[in-house]
Sequence to fold (266 residues):
Amino acid sequence: PMRPSKHRITLLVAGAASLSTISAFACFTSTASRLNARNFLNLGVVPSATRLLLSTSPPSQQPPEAVTETFDNGDIIDATSTLQSYDQSQQKFIQTDGNQGMGGGLSALHHILSLDGTTRSSLQNAARTLVNQAHAERAIDSGKGRIMLGFCASNAPEALSGLKSWVNSLELPRGMLHGMDVDGVPIPVEDLGSVYVKYSTGGAMTFGEMRKSGRGFDALWRPGDALLETYDGDFRGVYVNVELGDGVFRQFGVLPTDLFMDEEEW
Fold:
């Protein structure tokens, strides 16, 4: 649900040199090519800069221990309603703005840029409420409370800065950023153009899913891992999917990439 394009180029960010220029940043992918995915889950192989991009602490396999509160159902309903209302208002804005860009992507960006401080604050609170509930459920059962984020951005630095701010602000698990290469040769981030970064708190695929992917154990993910891909669409922002025990489908977006950034950071 978070991959708008059917044809993807999988890219893996590999090497400290490729990441050293990243200082700030912003979703879907182009036709398939010769780019082959490599997974650097072996901590002895992953460059430290790749891990430190999200946090100065080691990757976390569990949600924060301090998160144990289970919110009242009313809090969850209110947070869900806030984000649903935001989606509805964005769709209306896209139509009145002339549905500009592929799929209305440019109009969606215009909507994001029009948000006032009160609206942004309500979105922050709603996202925190749902994510904290997911943390609480995942602390009891690691197979529950999955959170997925999809960042659509004009360039890799924009996307990665946004990813870092969401992960840190929402106390999400910190994993590895899977990077990009062609036949094992790293691609400089400045050559990527628009990108899509997919993040998930969920763990490994099943063996069946790994076999189907054709990548074997290269398809294995750990909680908090993220994957960077090229993107040829016009949307800019974040798709958020939170899976809670009540079974309600909750996917929202696009939300502002800089929702959890201070103005000077953006």
Observations:
- Residues 1-69 have pLDDT under 50 and may be disordered.
- The first strand starts at residue 10 and ends at 11.
